[in-house]
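dumping the sequnces here before i forget
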Amino acid sequence: MSFLHIHNIHKRFGETHVLKGIDIAIEKGDFLVLVGPSGCGKSTLLNMIAGLDDISEGELRLDGERINDLHPSRRDIAMVFQSYALYPSMTVAGNIGFGLEMRKVPKAERRAAVQRAAELLQIENLLDRKPGQLSGGQRQRVAMGRALVREPQLFLFDEPLSNLDAKLRVDMRTEIKQLHQRLGTTIVYVTHDQIEAMTLATRIAVMRGGELQQLGTPQAVYDDPNNLFVAGFMGSPSMNLVTARIERLGGELVARLTAGSDEVVLPVVRDRAALEAWCDREVIVGLRPEAITDPSSANRQDGVIHEAELAVDLVEPTGADLYVVTQLGGRSINARMRPGSTLEPGQRARFAFDVSRMVAFEPDSEHRIRNPETVAPSEPAVVTSIS
Amino acid sequence: MSAASPVARRNPFARAMLYAVLAGFAVIYLMPLYVMLVTSFKPLTEIHQGNMLALPDAWTFAPWREAWGSACIGLECSGVHGYFFNSIKIVVPAVLISGLLGAFNGYVLTKWRFRGHKIVFGLILFSCFIPFQIILLPMARVLGILHIANSTTGLVLVHVVYGIGFTTLFFRNFYASFPDELVRAAKLDGAGFFTIFFRILLPSSIPIIVVTIIWQFTNVWNDFLFGVSFTSGDSAPITVALNNLVNSSTGVKAYNVNMAAAMVAAVPTLVVYILAGKYFLRGLMSGSVKG
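..and the predicted 3d for all of it:
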């Protein structure tokens, strides 16, 4: 039995069907990130776990116990809100200790617990201040302290970093991850930022329009997306998604892509059995920018490299990488190259495609075309044993 | 203001004009108060000389003492002090009760919404637009049935009923912008209905409490119509007593005593403004949510 079990959960507000049967199960110590564009129902789902919204249909189980109708304060859950929601009239210590005070914890014990939480978050020197005197990052810490101090079974985070500036957001992200590793708590975290989802999660649930699109480890969601939406949503810069025609060429299955006035023919390596059925039809193929490189930095050891010469449209250096834009399948696509390449727009260059990472989607249903029982090739046994 | 201030800052002449005009209006506005004050400190003989604006030649507190303790109102010659305390007895409970009920209404109407909450609020709001005169007769009947006619308790009830509409409006609009997430956080922390109200909302409500107190205090204190309709004799509030004092003439009009009595009647509202006004501008909500 899983630790948190969200079973066929529905949410209706009058006529609108906000959540359409969500099924998610995670284990103790998991860091589940609900990610999706705004309006996908991820915050509603979080509020339902917290007990702040009613469950229209379905079942919610925490540690084996059905908690559907349990009052929020009895669920043994703490939540960090997007706006921090600190009580303005209380000091930091009062804020952190309020939950314990409501639970009638004796004063001395309470003070010790507040002190411990404050030390953990390095805010001991702020305990006598009012929230109005704190900076954004400090308020964020207090909000986390308020959740931590109760030592709940489950932590809920509702877009906790979205009000911080970019630099602080990255720092706090690291701290949340460290906190999770140190305390081993179970966390459900809502964000619309797919980078936050990738970096923090042990499990990602990608949602759209009230439906779960994919649930899996960050790497699985990234490398082995269930559909076009997940493929396009996760990753930055996003996956290159272009139209290709599946053909048989000398006994080999290939994907034929237009490249300006030219053509590129890439051998089909992945999901070949499933793609046989799509022979002589158009599909959408997806390749991550890092799967299209310059020949010298191509990963020839694990990948299957196919080279082609294409025109360079645009060069975008980021410092760490060099993104090169070219035309493929009628669209502009991004390739990630080694910085320092002396490529110029208008010039022709050799691009190395790692076709082992190419995924294909049905153009109408946008579902993934996938062999029935494939294991994601990017999760080789070697990597798992190292970690 | 935004249009005038940059001009004034650049041009000292414009600035001087601005202040002159403002000062002119202030003088016009304060003139009656000045006349009242100087008259109340003059002996009657000086008043009869006719120069209203002149300062007293011989300052005297006698009119104030007489107004407070021995002026005749009707047949009773003991000044307005009894009626002053009547007004206190009416205004304090009326303000507290209507304010607290309004705060509760505002809390429920914004944070514990129920089906039809808008209609309920609309109906409560409607009471703000009912003219006093319409309810005089029905209210007299109700007070009679409750056996609190002709008493300060009766007036407290009248003012509470009449005040709830306004106090609810104030608190509802204030709490509408109070972040729901704070209430949700408190629920998760284990706080109940009343704890959330008294520990989370009320301490952050000082600005609207002050507005409500000023509004209700001045309205109830200055009320004349309800006072004169529902009380008589000893239970009348000071506004009614002041009217009776001025009308109980014993030959010569004692303008100085009348003015002193009027000042006594006006002082409490002034005091409320002076004491409470400074809380108006305090931003007590700062820091609770993203800033």
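Residues 12-60 of chain B form one domain.
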